[in-house]
Design brief:
The chain is of the alpha+beta class. It contains two helices and six strands. The radius of gyration is 12 Å and the shape is flat.
C-alpha cells in the first residue's frame, strides 16, 4: 500500500510531506515544490519525471491539482 500526506501550516507557511510505499528513496525523488504556488508528489513509482512534467503544466496554468490527489487539465 502507498500512503502520501501533504500539508501546509497556515501560520508559518511551512510545507511538509510524508510518503510510504514499496519504492526505495521515494521521499528523495517524488515530492516537488514550486515556491509560492504548488506542492505535489507522485505515488508508488519513484519517477522524478512525473513531477517535473506536472510542474511544467502548473507553470503554464494547464493543470490544477486537487486535494484528493486527482488533477484536471483546464
Amino acid at each position: 500500500m502507498t500512503f502520501t500526506i501533504l500539508g501546509r501550516d497556515p501560520e508559518t507557511g511551512k510545507i511538509g510531506f510524508g510518503i510510504a510505499t514499496y519504492s526505495l528513496a521515494v521521499g528523495a525523488t517524488c515530492p516537488f515544490i514550486l515556491p509560492d504556488s504548488s506542492v505535489l508528489t507522485s505515488q508508488a513509482a519513484a519517477n522524478p519525471n512525473i513531477g517535473k512534467e506536472i510542474i511544467t503544466l502548473v507553470k503554464k496554468r494547464l493543470y490544477t491539482c486537487a486535494c484528493n490527489g486527482t488533477g484536471s487539465k483546464t
